Amino acid sequence: MRRGRVVRIEGAPPPADPGGARVSIPSETRHPMNPSQTRNRRFVLAERPVGEPDDDTLRLEEEAVPEPGEGQMLLRNVYLSLDPYMRGRMSDAPSYAAPVEIGETMIGGTVSRVVASNLDGFEEGDWVSAFGGWQDYALSDGTGAINMGKSPENPSWALGVLGMPGLTAWAGLTQIGEPQEGETLVVSAASGPVGGTVGQIGKILGCRVVGIAGGPEKNAHVTGTLGFDACVDYKADGFPQALKDACPDGVDIYWENVGGAVFDAVMPLLNPRARVPVCGLISQYNATSLPEGPDRLNLLLGTILRKRMTMRGFIVFDDFGHLYPEFAAQMGAWVREGRVRYREEVIDGLERASEAFRGLLRGEAFGKRVVKLTEA
């Protein structure tokens, strides 16, 4: 047997609901876990989208369930993570990672159960966090897999606050934002899994935190449940002035998830030596051309120079993956103590993943969106 890489998440599991929420959106079809199932449903990339993905971008296919070879394990994917970065993997434009090829299974993080294993450190019945993709079953050689044990509480949280989104928030804010007590932190997409976690960490570290979100329900969640000091609705009339009013002392740290008009409203408020971790630009992911209007590049560069600001993009596992053990210990403690709250939106059924992903890009998700593929 080949020996796999085994990483276990230590410490007591989080409580069932430390002030967060789990919203389930059921499907008419149920797919109970069946070890004898012989067919594997999978979404493959059928064509590269121009603009927003549509019904023709991904195709649902069936194939035989694969058999694990030496040094492999067969995973039954239970939860699939939906994340904005996946839109970039559908494109063959230059990027930090290779695109998904036409006809290949769409990539994605999963929480899975081991069905069969020829890999040391992983046994039948183990829960595993891996990159199993948009499919019912996946083979893994253990690369990037995290063994979660036999009975973790809230296993899907390994795709959210205790996984990649949580690490993104924690590492990006602490390593790039470098928050200091009393500073003002502004967070775009504040009701999402990354933005919501960024703001709560900022509060723990002593910042005044202002969120930006879309609509009254999300804004109320950001202030009422997540504990931000204020939240501004970017969809409302007078958004730039409302944001200015919410930040009377300017902005010391701006967490960039969105780009576009939201960044335009933040930029004049940035203080000298402000830090801007650039996590995402979701407003631009489906764009087919440059935004309309004048070229503001020189204005941005002049602002960076004059205010001696720091703007830095990052790819979380490339730049900060080595910090995962420290993150897991710290975030696990905060979640157990109820200091970080988490909202999860569960879509029932693999067949609904494509539309659920498109809704995510349209801003329809409320919290971390995952797809439940089977009953564990």
From TrEMBL:
MF GO annotations: oxidoreductase activity, acting on the CH-CH group of donors, NAD or NADP as acceptor
Lineage of source species: Bacteria, Pseudomonadati, Pseudomonadota, Alphaproteobacteria, Rhodobacterales
Classification via PANTHER family: PROSTAGLANDIN REDUCTASE, PROSTAGLANDIN REDUCTASE 1
Keywords carried by this UniProt record: Oxidoreductase
Protein name: Enoyl reductase (ER) domain-containing protein
SMART domains xref list: PKS_ER
Highest taxon of the lineage: Bacteria
InterPro entries found in the cross-reference section: ADH-like_C (IPR013149), ADH_N_2 (IPR041694), ER (IPR020843), GroES-like_sf (IPR011032), MDR_fam (IPR045010), NAD(P)-bd_dom_sf (IPR036291)
SUPFAM superfamilies: GroES-like (SSF50129), NAD(P)-binding Rossmann-fold domains (SSF51735)
Keyword presence, Cytoplasm: no
Region (Disordered): 1-41
Enoyl reductase (ER) domain segment(s): 54-371
